[in-house]
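Re: export button greyed out
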Amino acid sequence: MKLSGYIRPDGSVGVRNHLLIIPTVVCANKVAVEISRKISPSIVIPHQHGCTQLKPDLDQTTRILYNFGKNGNVGGVLVVGLGCESLSSDEVVDEISSTGKPVDTIIIQDEGGTIKAIEKGIEKAKRIYEDISRFRRESIDLDELIIGVECGASDTTSGLAANPAVGKAMDMVIDKGGTVIFGETTELIGAEYILAKRALNDAVARDIIHVIHSLENKIKGYGYDIRGSNPTPGNIRAGISTIEEKSLGAVLKAGSSVVKGVLRYGERLNSKGLFLMDTPGQDIESITGFIAGGAQVIVFTTGLGTPVGSPIDPVIKVTGNHRTYKRMQENIDIDVSQVLFGEETIEKAGEKVFKYLLKVISGKKTCSEKLGHHEFAINRIGPTL
Amino acid sequence: MRKTVYKAIAIAYRDNVATAIDDIKIGEEVLIKRMGKDFKVTVKQSIPFGHKFAIKKIDREEEVIKYGEVIGIAASNIDIGEHVHVHNLVSSRKMGYKR
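Workaround output, generated via the alternate export path:
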């Protein structure tokens, strides 16, 4: 199977070639966004973090921003800092430069304010963009790629059609030596023993149970009824009654392969196979975690329809709900509702998803890319001080 | 026009609920697809697309089974053909719910 992608200086592989503009702190967002507006093919990731965070949160923010810059889909990076923040832009530059890709920086306080920083930033971004425009696609293999798999705006068709079909496609990815990450830990409550049975060994089985149960205990500690938070009001209106029902449908999207290990949020992968990453059920925070882990493509099932994309990854939307497909066609790439009505087997639907994935890897744009959906959010651990 | 005549799906033989894949009217006799062995149930209430109804009698406090696994506990006695959702099905995980 012939796939094409970009091979970066450090050997990492990408399916896109983005110029990424990274503000190190929320205060640098506006300047970063204005630079990106003038260099229109660039992608910018404004966020709410980078300063006055307790160490675990600052470490998490740092990890996500470093790893976004290092992701194979990114050809070059411009880092925009304020000058006094906790997360120093020089550190970000050093870390991402270690991949060998073109990286530059501007610091708002050094440049002398908004307008001057934007002007200097545009100059620098232009130069990086010229650099990366010279990169060409080369032949790559599926075993060099990581696919993140997510479900969002679920209804009961997600568990009956879309997730089983995507699960089959993910089995095909693993079969060909590729890597798959799934997560949304809240939406595994009720399915933990199913996963633990498929763990590589006892240690991984314990990790799976631990990550799911400790979240469950944390939630119980808050003392709130989570019904309405997860499952969401939309999930409930659509027929999902309990978190267990949601989880048992959600877990199907990960397929049937052995679970090799459990990763922290946004932790970069360095092995192949199927991995569970501890991410929240909130879709944007979750896929941000997968992409920081190295995922180059996201396959995303949706029952009720969600437009969510990502800044640097193509997001492939799959639905098992024919009504949703009709209503939100501009946001949805694949319709597998034929599975519900017995018009197509889960296996055939899985093959359909797999073939589409291969096309997207080699350059076919997803609905989320065409519409310019670049959602980005970093999960919080504690308060800002 | 769809070729299929079944209007609900049950997954595992253990399941005591089926999920509607079309809107079902009260009193309708519904053909349910289950692993090649289809069967019929008459619904006692309107069941919206995507919602569940009982395909076996379920007692209060009994486990409700879908995908062959426990999805929760019945909060009241449920007859065959009755709508099963948040009014009579609660999570088996004690997470601040009033049971």
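The beta strands of chain B are 8-9, 17-20, 29-33, 39-42, 52-54, 63-66, 69-74, 83-84, 89-90. The button fix ships in the next patch.
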